[in-house]
Structure formats: structure tokens, C-alpha cells
Amino acid sequence: MKKLLIVLLIVVFAWMVKLSYDLFKLRAAHVELRSSLSSIQQHNATLNDHVVALQRKLVQQQAQPSANNSVPQPSVLPASNDAELVRQQLNLIEFALQQQQYSLALEKLSQLQLNVENYALAPALIESLKSGLSKDQVMLQQFVQGRLIQQQRIRELLDQVDEDIAQELKAPHQSAVVESTSFWQRLIQIEPVKQPSQVLMQRGIILKEAQLRLLLAQQVLQQGQQLAFQQALSSVIEVLQPLPDRKSQQWIKQLEQMKTTPLAPIPPLNTRILMS
User: How far apart are CA 55 and CA 59, in angstroms?
Assistant: First the structure.
């Protein structure tokens, strides 16, 4: 029996080391993902600057008189070109929203709102675009504020659960024994005395696995993937489910609440309808 217990301890220790290594790699990947998102934001900003520069160049060409004629010539650029530029700006705004680059989306929306009168479009369409862009600006500001507040609350809850698990791993099994005395008393009555110790040893592995899955949930939340985030929370709940102690059950309840609170969806742009 002692040999079996020693083998079990070695297996548990090896598995804990593996989970710790996996957690380290996953945290490193999480940092790399944030760095990658930052690079994408910079790349998108550069693309936006190129588009704005092209737009200004086209406007200047429209305003310049012909070199061979002192009388200003009418614009040689068809309105469809300017309409396409507006669509490109809207595409960039929508892409920035999908990538959770909210400040960039609002900045480009403001730029489009300021420059819309410079486009060679029908006066009625320009007025409609100005009105639609004003509504979109208010709508997006409300959406961004609400989404950021909601995500911050979820991140704080995830961080709190992760911190609680980390504290639990530093002082393993103590709270589980104190809080679940009646459970272990019932278990001892129907199972061998050594069984609770095995379950307690497995608790450390389970909590390590829960930490790994929590980190995955934080990553998909950062990417704004609602369905993947709910699935990640479900996987954390699944791994914690066998634990009977009060803390584990409390974590499960918190995760269930986060799972049933959907992120506010990205609203469609009113101006997109005008340019469709």
C-alpha cells in the first residue's frame, strides 16, 4: 500500500509540474497575443493614414484647374470613386470595432464626419451621410462605453477567481477540509479512510487545470469572441464540478453568472445602409 501511495504521489507531482509548464507557456502566449494585437492596431492605423492621404490627393486634384486652360474644369473623377472611398472608410471603422480598436473606430468616424462634404457626391446624399454619421457617433460612443465597462467587470471577476485558485494552491486542502467536514464525515462512513486523501491530492491537479482554462477564457475575451468565451467558461466549470468544497462551488456560481451575461453586440452603422 505504501508503494502504491508513493507511486501515486510521484504521478501527481509529475502532472502538477506538467500543468505548471503548460500554464507558463500559455501565459507567454497570452502576452504575445496582446503584443500581436497592438501590432495589428498600428498596421491598421497606417492603412487608414494611406487611405486618408489618397482621399486628400483626389480632392486636391478635383480642385486644381487644368494646366492648359485658365477656366477651372469640372471634376474628372466620377462620384462613384468618392462613394467607394466612403465605403472603404466605413469598412475600416467596422473592422476596427470587430478588432476591439474602439478609439481608432471613433477617430476614423470623426474624420469621415469632417471630410464628408469634400466628396463629389449628391448634396442630398451628403446631408443624409452627415445626419447618419452623427447618429453613428452617439451610438458607438454609448456602445464602446458599455462594452468596456462590461469587459472590465468580467476581467476583474476572472482575475479574482484566478487569484483565489492561486492562493488555494499555496495552502492546499486546508479550506477544503475545514469547510467540507460534514462531506468528509459522510464519505468516511461509506468509503475507506484513505480515499479522502486521494481526492484531496487530485484537487491540486484540478485547480491547476482550471487555471489553464481560465487563461484561455481571458484570451478569447480579449479577442471579443463571445461564443468561444462561453465555451471556455463551460470548460472551467466542467473541470471544477467534481470538487465538493464550498470555495469550488462558489467559483462555479461566479463563472455561471459570467457565462449567462452576453457581451453587448456591435451595432450596425446607419451610414452603411445609405452606401449599400
Answer: 6
CA distance 103 to 99: 11
Which residue blocks in 195-245 are alpha helix, DSSP H? 195-222, 226-240
pLDDT digits (tens, 9 = 90+) for 34-48: 555 555 555 555 555
Which residues, at least 6 apart from 45, have a Cβ–Cβ distance to it below 8 Å? Answer: 104
CB atoms within 10 A of CB 102: 17
Q: Which three cell numbers stand for residue 168?
A: 488555494
Distance of CA 146 to the CA centre of its chain: 14
Helices (H) then strands (E): counts for the chain: 10, 0
Residue 263 phi, psi (nearest 5): -70, 145
User: Which of 213, 187, 211, 189 has its CA nearest to residue 200?
Assistant: 187
Which tens digits make up the pLDDT trace of 27-85?
A: 565 555 555 555 555 555 555 555 555 555 555 555 554 444 443 433 434 556 888 98
Q: What distance in Å separates the CA atoms of residue 25 and residue 228, rounded to the nearest whole number?
A: 20
CA dihedral 83, 89, 94, 99 (to 10 degrees): 160
Helices (H), the chain: 2-63, 79-98, 102-115, 123-170, 174-179, 181-190, 195-222, 226-240, 246-259, 270-274
pTM, two decimal places: 0.58
* Contact yes or no for 104/41 (Cβ under 8 A): yes
Q: Which three cell numbers stand for residue 236?
A: 472551467
Q: What is the 3-state secondary structure (H, E, C) of 67-104?
A: CCCCCCCCCCCCHHHHHHHHHHHHHHHHHHHHCCCHHH
